[in-house]
Amino acid sequence: MRLYEFEAKRLFRRFRIPVLDAVVVDGINEEELNKITYPVVVKAQTFLGGRGKAGLIKTAETRQEVESVIKEIIGESHGPYRIEKVLIEKKIDIAKELYLSVIIDRLEHKFCVITCSRGGVDIEEIARQSPELIHKYYFNASVRFSQFSARTIANGLGLSGSMLKSGAEVVYKLFNLFIGFDCKLAEINPLVITQDKKIYALDAKVDLDEDAMFRHPELKELGIQTRHEIGELTEREKLAKAAGIPYVDLDGDIGVFPGGAGFGIAAIDLIKHYGGSAANFMDSGGAPTQEKLRKMLGLLIDNPKVKAIFGARFGGISRCDDWAKALVQYVIENRPEKPMIMRMAGNMEEEGRRVLKEAKEKHPELFKNIKVYSVTTPIEEVIKETIRVAKAGRI
């Protein structure tokens, strides 16, 4: 479960990791705004990166400016998420930016501390362009993390003198926070050194293991409670949840209308492999009703990002004719214009094809942008065609 920056910094304060004094507001809060000194930095509270590039981190020199920035940012969207809060911190003079994080390396089955002497930018981008700057330190879960290890890591960041001691303390405390709260990620990017030789966690990212939160009642005291895996549901995710449909919004333009969850995941990978990008994950579950199938289609059709829909139904417990009837009814009732490239095989396939054939003969204009292939066409070819159609905007 991902935390907002201001929530992560509450945990940092609990472990005495140095952070700047700040206030969090969801509008023009006179009492809170009276606590700040200028100049300040106003940061949108959202779960996605790239806030600076999106214009969601701004500076303000006066009370009038900060109120203007608050009004400008709150209510804006960042990806699928609506911004409802901003964090306001004092602006500081930065001499150096570093990167520090603790993760679980699931291939090595160990804890891993990752550092980089360049912070403030995407660590993935640094790893591609300058991999020699990335350092990884592995630790067994059964071995106590030591002050000596923290000092070694801080030294690897190029810190020396008093800054070596301060940096080692941050490393040690971040690792203990990671263990203490059953985290999946604890990241500081950037960890900054100021012109007057002070160190601060300027940003904070923490992912908690939701299944372990029952062990940490103190989180509620900090205002942190169990919620959706990444924090907030998008509007489509809320609709899907109400309908009992496992659904997650993604950033692509190809709607995925699969059978089960396993194939839904495989479809996302295949679309990516062949140069496309999926707009969602979705699972119909075993033997879905026609009503549920129509709601699933509606989620994709109503998504403005979706340019084409890839669908696949392998009839096992479920029936191909039920899937075909749901598709036909949805098309007749809603008259969607987005192209659909699909594949149907298995239980009651012949009956399903008859349903589709009759509907197309009766309503040729409504079904001109819909293709449904059989098992003789490899699924890879269906996906390739869907990608082509999404790029072209038509069949």
Please tag this protein with its features.
4-stranded antiparallel sheet; 6-stranded antiparallel sheet; elongated; 13 helices; 395 residues; 18 strands; Rossmann fold; alpha+beta; Dna Ligase, domain 1; D-amino Acid Aminotransferase, Chain A, domain 1
Which helices and strands appear, and what pairs or packs with what?
Elements: H1 5-14, E1 22-25, H2 30-33, E2 40-44, E3 57-60, H3 63-73, E4 77-78, E5 81-82, E6 86-90, E7 94-105, E8 110-116, H4 123-129, E9 134-139, H5 147-156, H6 161-180, E10 183-194, E11 199-201, E12 205-208, H7 218-221, H8 235-242, E13 247-249, E14 254-257, H9 261-273, E15 280-282, H10 290-301, E16 308-315, H11 320-334, E17 340-346, H12 349-362, E18 370-373, H13 379-392
Parallel strand pairs: 14-16, 16-17, 17-18
Antiparallel strand pairs: 1-6, 2-3, 2-6, 4-5, 7-8, 7-10, 8-9, 10-11, 10-12, 13-15
Helix pairs in contact: 5-6, 10-11, 11-12
